[in-house]
Amino acid sequence: MITPSHQIIYDWEYQDQQEECFVTIHFPPTFNPQVLKYVLSEDKTNLILSMDSPIPIVCGRLWGEVKEIKDVYTSDKYVLSITKQTPEEWPNIIKAVHPEFESLDPKSAYIQFQELVLEAPKDPQFQHYAIERLVASAQTGFLPALRTYGSMMLTVNGQQQNGFTSLKTAADTYGDPASAYQVGLILASTPEGFTNGISYLKFAGSKGFHAAYLTLGQIYSPFTEFEAQKDPALAAQYLQQAIAAGDEMPQAYNELSKLYAAGVGVEKDLKKAQELLAKGEQLEEHQNRRRYSKEHGETAPPPEKHEDRSYAGIGKIIAIGGGIAAFVAGFSYAIYKKFSRK
What we know:
- By secondary structure, the chain is an alpha+beta fold.
- The protein is built from 13 helices and eight strands.
- Among the domains are: 4-103, Immunoglobulin-like (Sandwich), CATH 2.60.40; 210-340, no CATH class.
């Protein structure tokens, strides 16, 4: 599998300029770019770029014939420059499997998976090819593929264990915060995995996946149905971290407002509770309007008038938005139970 510090090398960048195209590889400070070697086939239509690893960095049949190829590197990146025999657009660097090595590099396989998925509705066979490419990429440890494969398999009956294992590998071996979040949520949804799950969620949050702080806040909040030892003060702490991260999560404002309204975990402050609730509603409305505009290509209509959510009574507040964590927890628990049966 790909060495953790080499993930950045395999996730190269591609740029096309009709007459030329470029593959840019960024590498860690301790990496020696002199180990990077490319081989162009005699007919100048197949390329492999590799190093001292059985997993090629770029490998496959190109979109056309190469006129000239050269490489150059600096202190932090390596650039492969290709001049085309015929000026034309190449949508990607690799079009198909390398005929000699009968393989693709991990990123090209993942790109082809993404393209084939779009064609799947036209022909079921495309779905088969898409999964084939995804599995090939994930088996090398290419992080985007590993993460995608894991998430997909969680939704397929009989494949939940494979999905969980892939996500756990992405989290444990490669330190992927998004995968750590999913692993943490699944584990935290069961009594036997709760403590370990919390550790994964905390790791995800510390690495920039700030939704983990919202989830931790919901887990410990006394106003959610998530089965856990409730800790209002800890819930407030995590919800405040979610808000401070600046990712505009309305649920964090809504949940924290309940704590202030009830005076649990924080000092009771109805004014603060109202301000938090209003901010959460404002963010939610803004996100809904932005989503509408994106989907319909037009400005969203004015929002409908809703029931006044002012904090006239604590009971009214507590009921607002309480089902989010319960749904997520239930979904994760159902997944876990499916693949943990003996």
